[in-house]
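Weekly structure sync, notes
Attendees: PL (lead), two postdocs, one rotation student
Agenda item 3: pending single-chain targets
PL asked that the sequence for the first pending target be pasted directly into the notes so everyone works from the same version. It is reproduced below exactly as submitted, 587 residues in total.
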Amino acid sequence: MRSLFWKVFAANLLTLLVALGTVSFLLASRFRDVHYRRTSLRLLATARDMTAQLEPLLAEPARRREVEIVRIAMEKSSGTQICVLSRGTARSEVFGGPLGDEAELPGPGADQAEAWETGVVPPGVALCGEEMLIAHVPFTDRRGLAWSLYVRASMAGAVDETVWELRKLLLLAVIAAVAVSLLLALGLSARIAGPLRRMRRLATTMAGGDFSQRMGLKEKDEVGDLAQSFDSLAEGLQSTLGDLRREQARLRGILASVAEGIVAVDAEGRVTLLNPQAAALLGLDQARTVGAAMADLPVPEHVSRQFIECLRRNALCTAEFELSGPNRSLVLQVAPVRTGEGERWGAVAVVRDVTSARRLEAMRRQFISDASHEIRTPLTSIGGFAAAIADGTAATPEQRTRGAALIVREVERLSRLVDDLLDLSRIESGAVELKLADVDVAELIRSAVEAFEAEARERRIHVELDLARDLPTVRADWDRIYQVLANLLSNALRFNRADGKIAIAAWDADGQVRVEVRDTGPGIPADQLPYIWERFHRADTARARDEGGTGLGLAIVRSIIGTHGGDVTAESEVGKGSTFSFTLPIT
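Predicted structure, written out during the meeting:
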């Protein structure tokens, strides 16, 4: 009986049965007293009426026959037994049935009633084995003779009949009460259980995450108040969860937009958060990683060890490690963090890719080494020949002339290195103001090629031009684009083979002019190709030093083209040559 309907129905029915049982018991108890009093009064009234009718007849012996007739008539009309007997005479006169038995005058049970009173004759005493009520009225006739009038009536018949009628009434009342209770239970079920069942369904829906439904009850009672409170709760939860979802969305957006990878674990070392950057850096599947134990993930052992150590010591742990395929340098910082007041510690880690920084640092060190060598060599030569000229060691004019020429050449080499450094610094800092004008790209290319004709002939390298007809003009700084072409042509000449070829092409490519410089040199290894545009990078360090390169030319090219709104690309195949290209927006 878990339903509220049956609970209400059973409670009403039980209450009704207890009430009707109590009423029935009280009615039965009171009924006997009422019936006794009423029967006693009736018997006494009958006895008084009888004495009034018999007293004149008993005073005349000749009318004894009439006495019996009147007595019998009174018995029939009243449904009682009447007995009249004389007192105080030698021979008693008796009128009536069992009460007038001479063997037991004035009859069984007659002594139970005092004069002018009634008494109860127990079942064991009464002739019929029933409980009887007897009334005794003494009187004297006109002659002064004393008489006693006894009137007896059975209580069983009247009481049983009345009790039966009462029971029928009570049974009908119970049936009616059960029907009314059922109707009330139905009403209460519709009024109370119905909204509660709906609340249960809505609670189940809310547990599933849907907070859009409402009770909508407007009654001004407890059920209505409960429904309105339920609706307010749903609205509050919907608003709160909406805020939480928006906050989570913002947090996910922030975590997804930061450059560093972020990994969070709980106190048991299970991953609770992993942003896309961390998944990419560590080579993990973001969807499958969340919820997994850090120790079970396919990451380097010292990575999971840092998390374990941080959780054990509750202290910051830092490690730098290398990953292959491709080679990357990563820095991992794991810091302890509380997941809630009084709860155990968890940890959050920041993963940073320091590959570029480490490579840049290595290139800077290499550049310092190369620059030191580049500077030391000409300075040594300059110092040696200047000393020879100064102390007279170079005695002949030819020796002094050759020494001065070498000094000039080495000074130019130093100046070129310093100029490249200053030029790149000014371009990247935005200190260079472009002198924009409409530039004929074909003419600019021909001018640059003419400047390198002598060097190309000296190196026995053939230069080809493939310039599209009606090539549109571009908005650019002539000198800076010339510098770009000069750097590309210089590299193509220096890093080409003897009897090689350089092909320069230009054409209109979707609203831009694309210029391409292709050589037949040794090519660039694939692992070096992504870094050739960086400062200080030289794919072949030994050859670049022999050729006098500083590793700044391509970095300057990228910076100049970038300031013009174009882009640069490079393709290469080892043993077959390299292709460098750049674009410029059409005016």
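Discussion points:
- The first strand starts at residue 81 and ends at 87.
- The radius of gyration is 64 Å.
Action: rotation student to compare against the earlier draft before next sync.
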